[in-house]
Amino acid sequence: MISTNAAQARMKKVPLCPEKVLDAPGLIDDFYLNLISWSNENLLAIALNKSVYCWNANDGKVKLITECEFIITSIKWSPDDYYLSIGLDNGTIEIWDIETITKLRTMKFNLNNRISSQSWNEHFLTIGLRNGEIFNNDVRISNHLTNKFENHLGEICGLEWRNDGIQLASGGNDNIVNIWDYRKSKPIFTKTAHNAAVKAISWCPTQTNLLATGGGSSCKMIHFWNSNTGCRINSIETESQVSSLQWGYSNGIGKEIVATHGYPNNEIGIYSYPSLQKTGVIIDAHESRILNSQLSPNGTILATIASDENLKFWKIFDEMPVVKKDAFTTSSSGKDMGKVMTIR
Q1: Is 157 exposed, middle or buried (0-12, 13-18, 19+ CB in 10 A)?
Q2: Which is deepest, 10, 11, 71, 143, by most CB within 10 Å?
Q3: For residue 220, which phi and psi values (nearest 5 degrees)?
Q4: Which helix (H) or strand (E) holds 110?
Q5: What are the phi and psi torsion angles at 4 (to 5°)?
Q6: Is the pTM of this model over 0.85?
Q7: What is the CA radius of gyration of the chain?
Q8: What secondary structure letter does DSSP report for 334?
Q9: Beta-strand pair 290-295/301-306
Q10: Collapsed DSSP state (helix, strand, coil) of residue 318
Q11: Which long-range contacts (CB under 8 A, 24 or more apart) does 171-178 make?
């Protein structure tokens, strides 16, 4: 448990108002869509109806990336930050080179079956569709479809690969959470603890097998799972629809998770982990339900979008202490990937 003094000190650090507010006119008020993505290069992409804009957090400049023919239903940066994938409501994906602002390819799936969620795993792009289908695609090759994950009966609104690329978590409008092994087309675990749509999905960056999921307005629960065993290890009753979850760090507290909420309270809640104590709350963070959030590359600033057509930035976390590595330690891939993808 956290001491009373530490909890009180943490609550005093929670902001009462955002550091910045940007207008987001035309933002679609749809709980199931994923319309914001923040790259490691500090570029925040946001989809407004049929247009994608990019806000450079380094210099504050805004750039129009593209205007699509169809309504945009999801966007996602590739791991190397060179490419932005754009999902449309007609069942197609566009992949854009952000350095040259050019469209590299279009991948077509089920027409008129919108793509509401996406997650990259190196050069593989996994997408979730309205009819519950999940497709895995190798964007480097012409015949891009490599695998199909089947076990959902509702729209895939939450989708995230684990950092090591071994497991995939998916959440749907069928109230189900599935945990997949990348080598198998059937889930290794199917969880039914939520009784509303599961959009909020977040893998813990410091504990590989720890997964957090949040339920919609009929559920209001955050559940924590051990993805190696499939066991539920903790739960939080939030009293509001959970639209997103992000892991972070706070000095004096340690590991925390922040949840954004919709009906009935449009607030931001912060909880310590594993004590599950509430360490902060931003009441009425937006005038209407919060639809999604993203964390800045350094893990300190939370960007939130809501149906009030505002994009707000909140200083929520502290930077995590740097762990010194042995001089001979390399990245998991053993090399600097750079711009190595050749998209056809």
Answers
A1: buried
A2: 10
A3: 65, 15
A4: none
A5: -60, -40
A6: yes
A7: 19
A8: S
A9: antiparallel
A10: strand
A11: 171/197, 171/198, 171/199, 171/200, 171/201, 171/213, 172/128, 172/132, 172/197, 172/198, 173/32, 173/197, 174/132, 175/215, 175/219, 176/151, 176/152, 177/201, 177/213, 177/223, 177/225, 178/149, 178/151, 178/152
Q: Is the dihedral of CA 238, 241, 245, 249 positive or negative?
A: negative
Q: Can you tell me whether residue 31 is helix, strand or coil?
A: coil
Tokens of 293: 């959030």
Strand order in the sheet with 134-138: 115-121, 124-129, 134-138, 145-149
Which of helix, strand or coil describes residue 187?
Answer: coil
CA 157 from centroid of its chain's CA atoms = 10
38-83 per-position pLDDT tens digit: 999 999 999 999 999 999 999 999 999 999 999 999 999 999 999 9
Strand order in the sheet with 301-306: 20-23, 310-315, 301-306, 290-295
pLDDT tens digits, one per residue of 114-160: 999 999 999 999 999 999 999 999 999 999 999 999 999 999 999 99
Terminal-to-terminal C-alpha distance of the chain: 53
On the 0-12 / 13-18 / 19+ scale of CB atoms within 10 A, 9 is: middle
> With contact defined as beta carbons under 8 Å apart, do 211 and 175 qualify?
no
Write out the two tokens for 302. 């939370």
